[in-house]
Amino acid sequence: SSETEYFQDVARLSKTLGGVVVLGCDTDTYGAFRKSAIVADSGKLLGVSDAVCVSLCSEYTGGVNFTVYNTSVGKIGVLIGSDLYSVDAIKTLSLADADVVFCIFDKVDNFVTEVVIRAYSYLFGIPIALVGDGLVTVSSVDGGVAFSSTKQVATFDVNTDKVYGEVLLKKRGLSRYKR
pLDDT tens-digit profile of 32-84? Predict the structure, then answer.
């Protein structure tokens, strides 16, 4: 099928570039339309991730899980579109030990999305690359913007050093009160 050829083209592109390619696209699996991202590394197709969080009134069907890919440059988590607005999605990818998260959008059209990736990077200690038509923004774990570009092709080295800190939790409902 033409979709399979498209996947093979992405794998060939990753081989030509000698690295990882993450490419957003729409997929059709037996009539189920999904917002997806193809991940390939050095000529090998690693997989296709689908958007999990989709609106009930959308023409698209949701996928079933969030994926972390082991690549030649580290562990890459992938989110598509509105998956970004699920705090559980970022938390899941962080706990799955992703080095960086790529969030693929059709078009990023407001500043709120950038604020969200910066907050999540700070809260979960993971850089997030927001990629959409006409914009690339990478947030750093200190909550800042590490890189931003509106160029058609942009390259940037992401700092994936992991910083761990002790966290104390206060929980409600575990009462020591005896009756």
Answer: 888 899 999 999 999 999 999 887 788 877 888 899 999 999 999 999 999 99
Q: What is the pLDDT of residues 145-158, one digit of tens each?
A: 999 988 877 777 77
Q: Is the pTM of this model over 0.70?
A: yes
**Alpha carbons 86 and 55: distance in angstroms, whole number:** 13
Q: Cα(178)–Cα(15) distance, rounded to whole angstroms?
A: 65
Sequence-distant (6+) residues with CB within 8 A of 30 are none
The candidate with the shortest Cα–Cα distance to 37, out of 96, 1, 84, 92, is 84
CB 99 within 8 A of CB 74: yes
